Amino acid sequence: MRTINKDGDLFMYCSHDGSLEEGFEMITQPATLEYHTSIKGIYSNLFTKIHDMGYCSHDTSTCGLHVHFNRDFYEDNEEVYITRLLFLVEKFWDNIVVFSRRNERRLDHFAKKVDMPPRDYYHRANKAGRHDDHYYSINIANRDTIEFRIFKGTLNCTTFFATLQFVSNCVLAAKHKTSAEVQQMTFDELIDTKEMKKYWRQRLSLGKMPNEE
Questions:
Q1: pLDDT tens by residue, 94-126
Q2: Are 66 and 149 in contact (CB under 8 A)?
Q3: What is the DSSP code (8-state) at residue 126?
């Protein structure tokens, strides 16, 4: 991890993850999208080194890219913002599945679609002891963070940053747009950077492949 941890600062560390058949999980400290972007070159070097060592991420059936954001970002009106976020994910589910590089069979195991009205899920997941709710596409059962679990792992820098940008756009839209504006949104409004547009064109060119892991 010396590639990304500079001057004694521990920004990323490795941990065992029971859902992985082999390998390890890489966990970063909390950081803004701007900070992640500022060290894009370091990420690129890190992913290249890991790949060259023989490790995989996308080319497995178990590895995921889980993106958390601080729950207190929504603290002034949490229930409203989270239900808007859940609505967005439900509204654009088919596109998000393509974006995620998963198929629905794998998602049903690790990050299933929320199968109830957003407000019902919000109140159920916030009750103590709801461990089963950890395995939804948007995990809101954590005390301090809200977690996007839907994306497949990657060692591709373009894919990694497109994913972070997409999550950021969803989170910001749920907070800063009205419920009526969220209902009127198109998926293309969430794909607003050059990096994401390139990535999304690539995903569409491949299509939604039934056997894709």
A1: 999 999 988 777 787 778 898 899 999 998 887
A2: yes
A3: T
Longest pairwise C-alpha distance within the chain? 49
* Residue 213 resides in a domain: no
Q: pTM score, two decimals? A: 0.85
Alpha carbon 106 to its chain's center: 15
Sort 51 into a burial class: Cβ within 10 Å, 0-12 / 13-18 / 19+.
Answer: middle
Rounded distance between C-alpha atoms, residue 110 and residue 47, angstroms = 24
Specify if 160 maps to a domain.
yes
Residue 137 domain-assigned? yes
Distance (Å, whole) CA 132 – CA 92 = 23
Domain that holds residue 191: 12-206
109 in a structural domain: yes
Q: How many domains does the chain have?
A: 1
**Exposure of 25 in the CB half-sphere (CA atoms within 13 A):** 16
